[in-house]
């Protein structure tokens, strides 16, 4: 059953432009991102409720998580509470996840999600993007050899019913695809279009 609200899950391998797409949706479509929770200390310049919900281990344990992980000794998670708070402000919201996290959402709230899966055809473009954002060359190569990177290079079968594939070799071309996706999503929400999910946008 279709719902009036949707969570746009932005996923894909590292360097494919997930954060860029999230910012584009916020700046051009006022799509707010779902705030996630963490027990790690707040960094200089960060704000509670803007970058994360910063929690104590005790307060973290009071939430009801759709997905949660422990990384470097700190807990991270996205909660039903945060998602519902975002939906109370707008019908469409977004979150950036790896494909494993996206699958967790697909299993838990399948009627509430659509997926933007980002790809890059040219590995050199991806490598240059990672280097361009300041990552050390050794770190870049380690990421490109990691099992998580290999996993996220392919759209998992479980996500295919929900996914629109966006090729991001060229950002201007990707913007055209994203704009078309948002138009379809708005039409579908209005009951006028049924071709949002499981669709690959045409190349431009």
Automatic annotation (TrEMBL):
Residues 5-183 form the Guanylate kinase-like domain. SUPFAM superfamilies: P-loop containing nucleoside triphosphate hydrolases. GO terms for molecular function: GMP kinase activity. Signal peptide: none annotated. InterPro entries: GK/Ca_channel_bsu (IPR008145), Guanylate_kin-like_dom (IPR008144), P-loop_NTPase (IPR027417). Keywords: Kinase, Transferase. It catalyses: GMP + ATP = GDP + ADP. GO terms for cellular component: cytosol. The keyword Transferase applies. Essential for recycling GMP and indirectly, cGMP. Belongs to the guanylate kinase family. This is Guanylate kinase.
């Amino acid at each position: 059953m279709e719902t009036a609200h949707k969570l746009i899950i932005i996923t894909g391998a590292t360097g494919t432009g997930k954060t860029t797409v999230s910012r584009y949706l916020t700046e051009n479509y006022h799509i707010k991102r779902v705030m996630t929770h963490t027990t790690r200390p707040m960094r200089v310049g960060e704000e509670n409720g803007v970058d994360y919900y910063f929690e104590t281990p005790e307060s973290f344990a009071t939430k009801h998580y759709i997905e949660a992980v422990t990384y470097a000794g700190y807990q991270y998670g996205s909660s039903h509470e945060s998602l519902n708070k975002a939906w109370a402000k707008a019908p469409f919201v977004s979150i950036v996840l790896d494909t494993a996290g996206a699958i967790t959402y697909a299993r838990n709230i399948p009627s509430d999600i659509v997926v933007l899966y980002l790809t890059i055809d040219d590995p050199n473009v991806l490598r240059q993007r990672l280097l361009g954002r300041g990552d050390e060359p050794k770190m870049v190569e380690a990421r490109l050899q990691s099992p998580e990177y290999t996993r996220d290079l392919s759209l998992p079968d479980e996500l295919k019913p929900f996914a629109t594939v966006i090729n991001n070799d060229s950002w201007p071309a990707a913007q055209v695809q994203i704009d078309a996706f948002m138009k379809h999503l708005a039409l579908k929400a209005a009951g006028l279009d049924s071709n949002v999910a499981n669709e690959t946008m045409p190349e431009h």
